Amino acid sequence: MALKNLLALVVLLALVGVSIAKPYGNPLGNPRVKGDLDLDYYRFKCPQVESIVHRVTFQYVSRRPTLAAALLRMHFHDCFVRGCDGSVLLKSPNNDAERDAPPNLTLKGFEVVDAVKSVLERKCPGVVSCADVIALVARDAVAVIRGPWWPVPLGRRDGRISRLSEANLPSPFADIKTLKNNFRVKGLNSKDLVVLSGAHTIGVSSCGLISSRIHNFTGKGDFDPAMNPSYVRTLKKRCKPTDVRTPVDMDPGSARKFDSHYFDIVAQKKGLFISDSALLNDFVTKRYIQTQVETRGASFDRDFSESMVKLGFIQILTGRKGEIRRRCAFVN
Length: 332
Hints:
Largest sheet: 2 strands, antiparallel
CATH architecture of the largest domain: Orthogonal Bundle
Order of helices and strands: HEEHHHHHHEHHEHHHH
Radius of gyration: 21 Å
Number of helices: 13
Strand content: under 5%
Oligomer: single chain
Number of strands: 4
């Protein structure tokens, strides 16, 4: 009789749309950062969500593989300002939203998020948040180019606020102390800092962001002594002093492949940004780089997956906080 009652309860829960949850506790270990997510959050409300996201993301990224880096960067920029709440997607008639801030003016891939959301709204109107869409799209975009896969617990809700003035992201010009503090206040540690910096393995920047570093570092026509001189000569051939537009690979020699090669080039003092080179100025981050070089990235995929899960929990909105936007660029 007890077994019959249990089976009846399971059937009833399924009929009314209550999931038999797979809760995913918040991994940040920061008492100020609360909220749990669920791997099966949409099991009954929108069971096709992950297959839809994967299909649409694959359609875009398979044609334009560089979108993988762009969409991963978008997720990072979203989570580091007001948390993973989709606020980076919001538009403002006054051009004062997060996406109008200088670091976000080069973000790409909004059309992928919008395409995914459009399909989801037709299948499951008003159910899947834009914050969850970004998190899933970033994961699937990296998977399309054969990068690491990670679980994406779901149940985030969308924020209603997006301010240009709050878009204070980790800077490519930052020293190690500043970078560690940037990550610490978000509940991330030094290992997360160096592991997530490894995303630069598929990154592309521009000459404008490195011009002073290679042409006039201290105002005397010199270059940053933290850089490999031969690498500087190579960069100078590509980037003239007044050139701000020419693209530059963050991981020369392996920029189209998600691998651990980034750590090899940082160890050789060929990190493109000051923030890349700064990783050699801390015991924990330097040791991690050395380990990846020595082991040919044996743990990098696993470490990256773990840090991405942690990233996805930053200052999440759950329960009745926020909303589920119908269109990702506008509040309801």
